[in-house]
Amino acid sequence: MAGFLFSWAASSPSILFTSSKFCFVGIYLIRPLKKGMVFIYHIVKPGETLSVIARNYRRSLSQLFAANPSITNPNLIFPGQQILIPGLPNPDTIPYTIIVSRGKRNLTLLKNGAVQKVYPIAVGKMLTQTPIGEFVIVNREPNPGGPYGVMWLSLSKSGYGIHGTNNPASIGQFVSKGCIRMYNENVLELARIVPNGTRVLIQP
What we know:
- It is built from three helices and 15 strands.
- By secondary structure, the chain is mostly beta strands.
């Protein structure tokens, strides 16, 4: 397994299998480029289209076509196919992992598997629940304003993110439209620590 970099995910049940040539980690296929370097591929899930994948990762179709020259028709992709996501670091090269608990309404920041911080959050209400699953931070926008407060961290699911708030009294409640809401000072601190590509695990 020379050439692969594993942190928290090395002991995670999301690893499906490994070999000397590649390994599956959750929804990602990690390929070694050379020692110490890896690429990340999204593994197509049933029902996904290239347009959906592009929106989820905030990439354009032209960017995905350029990174995946074997794809000539966006309507001809299939479950299990590997889609290279350009310009996004592989989560397993990043020491940080974010775990969100909807039930406890908290966000835990891990570094190399050790708890660094636990933040109170607000999550989605009953009709607009925060999605469960494994995502990554794909980009960010400082000072989006309004209900998003002072920082927006996009998740790899279109329309969802981790953000600040203009209503601090809502933290700790089930009130959002599915996003993860934090105190402004907390989301700024989190954004200073974690880079794009950081894995985010949302649990019930």
